[in-house]
Amino acid sequence: MKIKHTLLAFTLLLSANIMGQFTLEGEFRPRTELFNNGFNYRYQPAAATPPGNLSGREGSSAYLSTSVRAAINATYTTESYTMYLGFQEVFDFGDRTQISAASNGNFRVQEAWAAIKLSELWSFKVGRQPLSYDDQRILGGLAWAQQARTHDVGVLKYKNAGYAIDAGYSLNTTGSNTYGDHIYGTAALFSYRELAFIHANKKFGKLNLSALLLNTTFQAGTEDQSSLVTAGVHAKIKFGKLGLAFNGYVQDGERIGNVAVKGAYLTSLDASFAATAKIILLAGSEIISGTQDNTAAFFPLYGTNHKFNGLMDRFYVGNHAIGSGLIDFNFGAKFKLPKGYNLMTKFHYFKEESRSKNTLGQEVDFVIAKKFKGYSIVGGYSHFFEDDSFPNPAGNPVANSTQNWAWLMLTIKPKFLNTTK
Hints:
Elements: H1 2-19, E1 21-36, E2 63-77, E3 81-92, E4 107-117, E5 122-129, E6 151-160, E7 163-171, E8 194-204, E9 207-219, E10 225-239, E11 242-255, E12 259-274, E13 279-288, E14 326-336, E15 341-351, E16 359-372, E17 375-385, E18 403-412, E19 415-418
Antiparallel strand pairs: 1-2, 1-18, 1-19, 2-3, 3-4, 4-5, 5-6, 6-7, 7-8, 8-9, 9-10, 10-11, 11-12, 12-13, 13-14, 14-15, 15-16, 16-17, 17-18
């Protein structure tokens, strides 16, 4: 009897390896945050009028909130294709009563895609998937947000001799219905009608170079269409202990609502220096163009914007593109502490790029992280300082008040099943 069971188990295992390899993984990520004014505050000069919701968390009393990402992800891989299904719910503590028969409506298919191997050099990936390239400045997965970001898109991929070229296209419709006036709300710059891009990457020794060409078409009714082109390069190079990263992008065309964009640009340079085995020094600057009439106002579109311009999400997060642009000078350090702890601290100095070059304030961020066996814990604290001359709209209660934000996050990613092992 034991021999039969052994043979049966061996046969099933062999069949699984012939048919394909299957993995089943999960994620549980609760995050508690303390909001006390300033976080996600949307500064908007009165003369700048891009569409969108300009409200934020400003002016409220301090409060605690806990959100959770709960996900289960399955991957099936064969010689000719890979299929991925990811299911996720995002919920807040208290958003559903204890005996409610209804959900909070946030359970969804987060990812559903298939990658088909066309040849040794070519493949095609189609379905709901994240688009994440380089440092995620223009196209990023936005993993910080509990809901993250995905696109319904097809991507043709080519890899050969160190070259990696992706060409993608997305056409968004709901049955025969196209986007209507509702896209002027909080999702205006993120709800596109069509998206097409080409991304190319190649490593030349110590230089890692990428180029991106992205065209986004917005629609606000059957006749009202506008198209915005974003193009640029990302480069990274290392000289011994010194590492440099550069971004250079331009935009031209029209944003949603036929807002003309001419000569808009984003440029940045970041440096890291390994001072010791346990200390890395950081310094960087970023300039995002803007003008009083918004014609040269650059918007980073679909990047992981939380990663840039301070962790308090004051600029370019959500839909609050600031027409006056931004200058961000920053410096900081990363430390490897005893017992496996890691600390990052960074200071930002913000100014308007155009208009009267107003000083927008300073921000200091602290992040501490520790990996344990099977899980990790990350926490942080940020504080924003405004000058007395900060150009707040009249009557806004945020000016000169205490503006800080603290958070603590647990991440567990169990691997339930893996037939490759």
